[in-house]
Write a structure and sequence with these properties.
The structure is a single chain. The protein is mostly beta strands. It has one domain. The protein is built from one helix and six strands, in the order αββββββ. Strands 4-3-2-1-6-5 form a six-stranded antiparallel β-sheet. The longest helix is centred in the first third of the chain and has 6 residues. The radius of gyration is 16 Å and the shape is globular.
């Protein structure tokens, strides 16, 4: 994982908001959660792709951006609780620790 130091820097900070960025191709939803944005004392961006996780400080004004892209490749940004209402119960809570969950691959797996 890249950006562990960012997660460590927000321990004991309260969660203020959350947003997700989806991926829409030619008007069709391809991926509901392409990027996750969480706001503590600063916005952080969490991207997980191809078994890699990257955490960065977000410098864009996420509060005011509704989408990136065009009609072909569109990346709308919406509140997390629009799709996941349970997220609301985490607002105001402090991050006390974090763990990266990884899939342990079978050591006996062989490809032919």
């Amino acid at each position: 994982m890249e950006g562990e130091y960012i997660l460590n820097s927000i321990i004991n900070k309260s969660l203020e908001k959350g947003k997700i960025q989806s991926f829409v191709l030619n008007g069709k939803l391809v991926d509901r959660i392409n990027v996750t944005f969480l706001k503590f004392d600063k916005w952080i961006r969490i991207v997980s792709s191809e078994e890699n996780i990257n955490v960065e400080i977000e410098n864009q004004p996420i509060d005011t951006i509704e989408s990136f892209g065009d009609n072909d490749f569109n990346y709308p940004i919406e509140k997390i609780d629009t799709y996941y209402s349970d997220f609301k119960k985490y607002i105001g809570l402090k991050l006390v620790s974090w763990k990266e969950l990884v899939w342990e691959k079978d050591n006996n797996l062989t490809l032919e």
